[in-house]
Write a structure and sequence with these properties.
Layout: H1 10-40, H2 42-53, H3 58-76, H4 78-95, H5 100-113, H6 123-132, H7 137-162, H8 182-198, H9 206-223, H10 235-253, H11 256-261, H12 270-287, H13 289-296, H14 303-315, H15 325-336, H16 343-371
Helix pairs in contact: 1-6, 1-8, 1-9, 1-10, 2-3, 2-4, 3-4, 3-5, 4-5, 4-15, 5-7, 5-15, 6-14, 7-14, 7-16, 8-9, 10-13, 12-13, 12-14, 12-16, 13-14, 14-16
């Protein structure tokens, strides 16, 4: 309606489309790849291997699960961890007769806080990289590496201390289930493994993701055509994201930028960066991290300020259930598996982690940025 009526000028609409269509295309392609890889049994097979490598020691299995959540989030996005890794990890815990809540909580916290390192880790990062113009994924990672490390280490330490009693002792490794189609499993695993380095090669990320999606769709068309469906495309999240892009762009075209410039600061000193990351954190937990980023992006006048904003909208959405789409998707998965959760306790624990993680990550960013 805002486009059709001219509330958002046509020229602004074309500029917006040029920016976000490749981003949404990447989201669609990577979702198809990960959904079909999960259907082929890639994540289940990997979890089974982790159970064997744990050698019956709970703490060792815990470390492997944490590593899986981190790697999945960094290379395949936070939504992949929330939607595909969570049920695999929870079922692994249940089959090994371990309490599932520590593993479930680890996946959702790390899905959010480990999503800072690469552009592909989070939709907000993809949007920010285009504005930063720092020279590709490697330069992006170099800028945010220190705060990203804080975003991973602090939640891991907190979780390990919270559940230290549950992580003592041993477990019985569940039997590894044999994939019904081993060829499909192996080729899908190769496609995913080949995709990971290509996503950080400097190519526009939608290109390798689209090629991988075509390859794996053709593979399933040959081996298991019944698994192919138009529902593999995440229509609802894409529609929500596209709508938010248009509405927030319209608000900026009608004066929102001038308003937020008065409350977001404009420097790269530690206090200004803390102000921006805190604003991103509060906004994410109030209205969700994607619209929070879109609203606040214009006051990220430099790569360092945009990185501070990413700290807030990536590491901060651990308090309210709606702070990130990944958390809502995660909750849907764990309740379907019979895992109960107290939202007040979840929010209180998340608040404690956020109060530690966001300031420390912002401090790390300031120290690194100051050294350059």
């Amino acid at each position: 309606m805002v486009i059709a009526t001219g509330i958002l000028p046509w020229r602004d609409t074309l500029v917006l489309a040029d920016r976000v269509v490749p981003v949404l295309g990447f989201v669609a392609a990577i979702t198809i790849v990960t959904e079909l890889a999960a259907e082929a049994g890639v994540f289940s097979a990997l979890a089974g291997r982790l159970a064997l490598w744990g050698r019956g020691r709970r703490i060792l299995l815990w470390l492997f699960v944490l590593a899986l959540a981190v790697v999945s989030t960094i290379f395949l996005s936070l939504d992949t961890t929330a939607v595909l890794v969570t049920p695999v990890v929870v079922l692994l815990a249940l089959h090994a007769r371990l309490p599932p809540l520590p593993f479930a909580l680890a996946t959702v916290w790390l899905a959010n806080t480990a999503s800072l390192l690469l552009p592909v880790s989070n939709l907000t990062n993809l949007l920010a990289e285009g504005r930063m113009d720092v020279g590709g994924p490697a330069a992006f990672a170099a800028l945010v590496a220190a705060p990203a490390a804080v975003g991973i280490l602090v939640p891991v330490i907190v979780l390990s201390l919270m559940f230290r009693k549950e992580l003592r002792g041993r477990y019985s490794a569940p039997p590894v289930e044999r994939a019904p189609d081993r060829t499909l499993l192996l080729v899908s695993a190769i496609v995913v493994a080949a995709l990971l380095p290509l996503l950080v090669s400097g190519l526009p990320v939608w290109i390798p993701a689209a090629v991988a999606a075509v390859v794996i769709v053709v593979l399933f068309g040959i081996r298991r055509p019944g698994a192919l469906s138009v529902n593999l495309v995440p229509w609802q999240p894409l529609g929500i994201a596209a709508g938010l892009f248009v509405l927030v762009e319209t608000a900026h075209a009608r004066g929102l930028t001038a308003f937020i410039s008065n409350i977001g600061g404009n420097g790269t000193d530690l206090l200004s960066l803390l102000q921006l990351s805190a604003l991103g954190t509060v906004s994410s937990n109030a209205i969700n991290n994607l619209p929070a980023y879109l609203v606040l992006e214009p006051i990220g006048h430099s790569p360092v300020r945009l990185a501070a904003l990413l700290i807030g909208v990536n590491l901060g959405p651990l308090v309210t259930p709606w702070a990130s789409l990944a958390t809502l998707l995660w909750h849907q998965k764990i309740t379907g598996l019979g895992v109960t959760l107290s939202w007040p306790k979840f929010m209180l624990a998340g608040l404690g982690v956020v109060l530690l993680t966001v300031p420390l990550a912002t401090l790390a960013l300031w120290l690194v940025a100051g050294s350059h």
